[in-house]
Amino acid sequence: MIYWQLFYEFFKIGLFAVGGGLATIPFLQELAEKYPWFDTAMLSNMIAVGESTPGPIGVNMATYAGVMAAGIPGGLIATFGLVLPSYLSILLIARALAKFRENRWVNAAFMGVRPAVTGLIAVAGVSMLRVSLLNETAFAASGAWESLFLWREWILFAVLFAVMWKWKKLHPIVIIAAAAVVGIVFGL
Amino acid sequence: MNIYLDLFLTFAKIGTFTFGGGYAMLPMFQKELCERHDWATKEEILDYYAVAQCTPGVIAVNTATFVGAKQKGALGAACATIGVVFPAVIIITIIALVLKNFADIPAVQHAFNGIRVAVAVLILNAVIRLWKSNVKTVWARLIFAASLLLMLFVRLSPVYPILGAAAIGIVCELRGKKI
Q1: Containing domain of residue A169, as a range?
Q2: Cβ distance of B16 and A54 shorter than 8 Å
Q3: Which residue of B61, B103, B165 is in closest CB contact with A59?
Q4: Cα(first)–Cα(last) distance of chain B, in Å?
Q5: What residues form DSSP beta bridges with B56?
Q6: Exposed end of chain A (fewer CB within 10 Å): N or C?
Q7: Shortest CA distance to B27 belongs to which of B126, B113, B95?
């Protein structure tokens, strides 16, 4: 029964894909080979859609794959399967953490972890900077330095950064919406 | 407002306006959870991220479950989790059924190119603020640099820098050094 298979497969992905949404891609590749639900060409389209729509990428991919396999109920069941293991494990951890929050050693471990997570977020920022401000494929093809820099994006970057710096209370939604409009108007 | 409804709506709002996955959601989490609501401190969100990286599942979903559970137990966690997933499920279902070439539409690509710049600005801004509040001592700077360099140049699972940093935190406490 396809619904049960979808639930089972995405529950497994939710259980074993450690490290965020992009970690689900190798698992989805396996699904493409094992089931007739979607093929690898459709998978690359799913990744493109998952990255250019709002929401957690892993969830986007599960919904897309489920809908391709078995329509709207398939999308719901695949998403439910993906989310259920993390929901259950985080509930348990949240209970334990509430109990040990004041523990000296737990607290010391988290003091060490915070700078590391700040580093991980900085890495995410660097890779977002690379894809948004540099055209590495054009540079690799032509070897000309002027093709590497997307200068209009650099201007947008500088303007948005200055705006964030001046108006610290600004909601991120405003920045995102403004950037989308600028992107369409100037054809970035 | 009813707290369960508030959890659902707040996380639905976060889910609607974040592009680029878990880390890109951080500025939105900070704004909605620390500033507009009093649901978590910025340090707690970092702790949730650390745990989310080391446990299975999607980071944004794990963080939503954490915050909901802290407010209102299992039911609160369910409301927050369904909220963060809800917009994505609706949007993706529509795209998968009727807009299969969504990612190839020129306007979508232009908007997305702009949004990526905004997301880079938001993440960088968040990193600068986190640096100011959490990376003050020599040890903290070393941990930050090590995790940044390891992730940039060695294609490592983020689990290792986090576990290593937790161990350093405990050793520092044993030796009476502050991080």
Answers
A1: 104-185
A2: yes
A3: B61
A4: 40
A5: A18
A6: N
A7: B126
pLDDT digits (tens, 9 = 90+) for A148-186: 888 899 999 999 999 988 988 888 888 888 999 999 999
Query: Under a CB-based contact definition with an 8 Å cutoff, are residues A57 and B88 in contact?
Result: no
Task: Give me the residue label for tokens 């306006």.
Answer: B17
Distance of alpha carbon A46 from the chain centroid: 13
CB-based contact, A41 to chain B, within 8 Å? no
Shortest Cα–Cα distance, A143 to chain B (Å): 23
Handedness of CA B18, B20, B26, B27 (dihedral sign): negative
pLDDT in tens, B80-128: 999 999 999 999 999 888 877 787 889 988 988 898 898 889 889 888 9
Decide which of A100, A116, A141 is a domain's last residue.
A100
Measured between CA atoms, how close is B74 to chain A, in angstroms?
Answer: 7
Q: How far is CA B4 from CA A146, B9, B71, B78, in A?
A: 53, 9, 9, 9
- The Cα A24–Cα A35 span in angstroms is 16
Cβ contact B88:A54 at 8 Å: yes
Question: Can you give the pTM of this predicted structure?
Answer: 0.84
Q: Return the domain boundaries, chain B.
A: 3-101
Query: What residue in A sits closest to B163 (Cα-Cα)?
Result: A113
